[in-house]
Design brief:
26 strands; 4 domains; Immunoglobulin-like; binds beta-D-glucopyranose; single chain; TIM Barrel; 23 helices; Beta-glucosidase
């Protein structure tokens, strides 16, 4: 499988590689594997896609290897459970390894800058902390099976429109606090074997050629020691990319780029050491993969069955968004009408490279509910199989079936064509045929439950408040029907919580005005105010906030305690189940940081824990909040900093549902930029040591008091305070001189 006999003991690469051997390791052998150098003891590495299940192409590309299809990352993110994500990842890795793969090209972990992102279903969240924690779970799950993980797409690959070229024009602060943040977490903690450089540019430079990103930040700041691989076809200039730190170009270029590399060394424009350094990284990966290969499959006897895990994961990904009059769980004897063509053939994944050929069919929601529910279950399609086409006869039939039932469950969702790699969603709306069906059923039925199947938020304004319950399944994989049925009948508690805001209207979303950009540029004008950070900053209403989700059980949060720890703060909260039902709960911790010259999100997620609490039971939850979670990136000083002052830690059920609050007094860095002649007068005056020293110096230098008067008159300071101070020093009419400023500046360090 690796270009070496499978029984071969993993070898150390032998001997110094020649330049052409080294160059040959730097691009693929074909679509999915690296080149082997058997005589040097370097095997080939086989890579495969697989974020919600193994997505390996058949050798003739006529389809994919059948595999267990798990919920997509967007759905699984709603579990807020890195351990469950890790179990799913482990199961995917075992199937990948059984199919001969060494590396899984997952997890996808870009942030959801806009709900329109075409690949959002492959990503976790609009929040970097949640994304980072879940990606750590995924990478640990995969690598625990001896298969390498490849985190992608590094970085700011947040749209499909013009994805191969577009420049994400983004501030350093937003990059650091959001887009890089999740990668930083996973690279430093879980140590993935590979990082995939994305197609797009960042601030004008292709990521694949960006030395600051690929070497400065990834390797030098975060200590990444694995292989940087290009997204498939993302290399624009092979030599520039190699210099920047892109080790492996995929897929094969039939030797063309290897020849460019050798020619550049021969011409003296590329250092041979750069070639050997990247070749060594690829060789190390190959040897590591071969060594791990001998241990693969060891856990498969103790692991749960993948098919069962797919059902549990689907169940746990379900979010109950609304539940009025206790319509759910279904009363055991209720007469139920299940309506909507998607109830007979549910969607369960998105399109593109991540697509899985499911081993087991997803089955029908109608059958799954029928098998679990004691009362009668009737079915009517309501709209055409494509999910799009209005059919008056089907509509009429559905309304009469709904009217005869106690509860109508209408299954709707975004059509298959709406969510795929390669293009962004056009809008958030469901097809009109489906909205019309929901409205008609809600008007006729005694109780209406809407089940939404989608890889992201949909617009619910047309019927949100006129139906009794709303359930979001996400794209839940092959377990969608059984997982949903156990939630509807109440065999399981809906523990899912939204990992992204459901806005009322697309126009409310923070990136609305600039997504997806034009002319090759996407201006990230919302800065750090992505998702709930932006919605909460403007305070506009949302349909369902980030973190929202209801349980059948009822829990209370008590006794929030915060104490300093070695790495930050330890937070404890007691969760009491005050109901007679088992409940799943996600304790979410947010920080309310003091506003500063730099604006902050009103609340930012700093930790969370998903817990199951039995009826009447009490659990004390402990969550570690690292210092970094309270820090911000300072644009002027170009570093992370912790602001001093009162910060409030909030235990909440969503970004908008604070339950308990605890104020802590943070002693921060009190970051001060060194004063220069370019600093403003106000910056000089406000400095605790320099300000008084400046006044004292001018008072001595200008006994007339004119200069002192100017610098202490509030109105004058209001007018001229923003001037870089050296511009005042050219005026011979006052005592400010460059010499005097030089002397006074010395007191900064006193
Ligand atoms: C996608 C990657 C994928 C790769 C290999 C690219 O088009 O962007 O996510 O891993 O193809 O299939």
């Amino acid at each position: 499988m690796n270009g070496l006999p499978s029984s071969a003991a993993p070898a150390e690469p032998t001997g110094e590689l020649t330049l052409s051997e080294a160059a040959s390791l730097l691009s693929g052998a074909d679509m999915a594997s690296t080149k082997a150098l058997p005589e040097r003891g370097i095997p080939s590495v086989l890579m495969t896609d697989g974020s919600n299940g193994l997505a390996m192409n058949l050798p003739d590309f006529s389809g994919k290897v059948p595999a267990t299809c798990f919920p997509t990352s967007s759905a699984l993110a709603a579990t807020w459970d890195p351990a469950l994500v890790g179990q799913v990842a482990g199961a995917i890795a075992r199937e990948a390894s059984a199919a001969g793969a060494d590396v899984l090209l997952s997890p996808g972990m870009n942030l959801k800058r806009s709900p329109l992102g075409g690949r959002n279903f492959e990503y976790y969240s609009e929040d970097p902390l949640l994304t980072g924690e879940l990606a750590v779970g995924f990478v640990e799950g995969v690598q625990g099976e001896g298969v390498g993980a490849c985190v992608k797409h590094f970085v700011a690959n947040n749209q499909e429109t013009d994805r191969m070229r577009v420049s994400a024009d983004v501030s350093e602060r937003a990059l650091r606090e959001l887009y890089l943040r999740a990668f930083e977490e996973v690279v430093t903690r879980a140590k993935p074997w590979l990082v995939m450089a994305s197609y797009n540019r960042v601030n004008g430079t292709y990521v694949s050629e960006d030395e600051r990103l690929l070497t400065g930040i990834l390797r030098e700041e975060w200590g990444f020691d694995g292989v940087v691989v290009s997204d498939w076809g993302a290399v624009d200039d092979r030599v520039r990319a190699l210099r920047a730190g892109l080790d492996l170009e995929m897929p094969s270029t039939s030797g063309a780029s290897d020849a460019q590399v050798v020619a550049a060394v021969d011409a003296g424009t590329l250092d041979a050491d750069v070639v050997h350094r990247s070749a060594r990284r690829v060789a190390d990966l190959a040897v590591r993969a071969a060594a791990s290969g001998t241990h693969r499959g060891e856990s498969s006897t103790t692991a749960p069955s993948a098919a069962d895990l797919a059902i549990t994961a689907a169940e746990r990904s379900t979010v109950l968004l609304r539940n009025e009059h206790g319509v759910l769980p279904l009363a055991p004897t209720a007469g139920v009408a299940v309506i909507g063509a998607y109830a007979s053939a549910p969607r369960f994944q998105g399109g593109g490279s991540a697509g899985v050929q499911p081993k087991q069919p997803a089955g029908s929601i109608v059958d799954a509910v029928g098998a679990r529910h004691a009362g009668t279950v009737e079915y009517a399609p309501g709209y055409a199989d494509d999910g799009l086409t209005r059919d008056p006869a089907l509509l009429e039939q559905a309304v009469s079936v709904a009217a005869a039932a106690d509860v109508a469950i209408v299954v709707v969702g975004s059509p298959e064509s709406a969510e795929s790699e390669g293009y962004d969603r056009a809008d958030l709306g469901l097809p009109e045929a489906q909205n019309e069906l929901v409205a008609a059923v809600a008007a006729a039925a005694r109780s209406t439950v809407v089940v939404v199947i989608s890889g992201g938020p949909v617009r619910t304004e047309a019927w949100r408040t006129s139906v009794d319950a709303i359930v979001s399944t996400g794209l839940a994989g092959q377990g969608v029907s059984l997982g949903l049925a156990s939630i509807l009948v109440g065999d399981a508690d809906p523990g899912g919580r939204l990992a992204e805001t459901w806005p009322r209207e697309l126009a409310d979303t923070p990136s609305f005005l600039s997504f997806p950009g034009e002319g090759g540029h996407s201006a990230y004008g919302e800065g750090i105010f992505v998702g709930y950070r932006g919605h909460d900053r403007t305070g506009g209403e949302v349909a369902f906030p980030f973190g929202h989700g209801l349980s059948y059980g009822e829990t209370r949060f008590e006794d929030l305690a915060v104490s300093p720890s070695a790495s930050g703060w330890s937070v404890e909260v007691t969760v009491v189940n005050v109901s007679e039902r088992a409940a799943r709960e996600v304790v979410q911790l947010y920080v309310e940081a003091p506003d500063h010259a730099a604006r902050r999100a009103p609340r930012a997620l700093v930790g969370f824990a998903a817990v199951a609490v039995a009826p009447g039971q009490t659990t004390r939850v402990r969550i570690e909040v690292p210092r970094r979670a309270l820090e911000r990136w300072d644009e002027a000083a170009a570093c992370w900093t912790l602001d001093s002052g009162a910060h409030t830690i909030v235990a909440a059920r969503s970004s908008r549902d604070a339950v308990l609050r605890h104020e802590i007094d943070v002693v921060g860095d009190d970051l001060r930029m060194p004063l220069t002649a370019d600093s403003t007068l106000v910056e000089w005056l406000e400095h605790p040591a320099v300000g008084p020293a400046l006044i004292a110096a001018v008072t001595e230098a200008d006994p007339s008091g004119r200069t002192t008067g100017m610098l202490t008159n509030p109105m004058a300071v209001l007018m001229i305070g923003g001037l870089p101070i050296h511009r005042l020093a050219v005026d011979a009419g006052n005592a400010l001189t460059l010499d005097l400023l030089d002397r006074v500046a010395g007191s900064q360090t006193d």
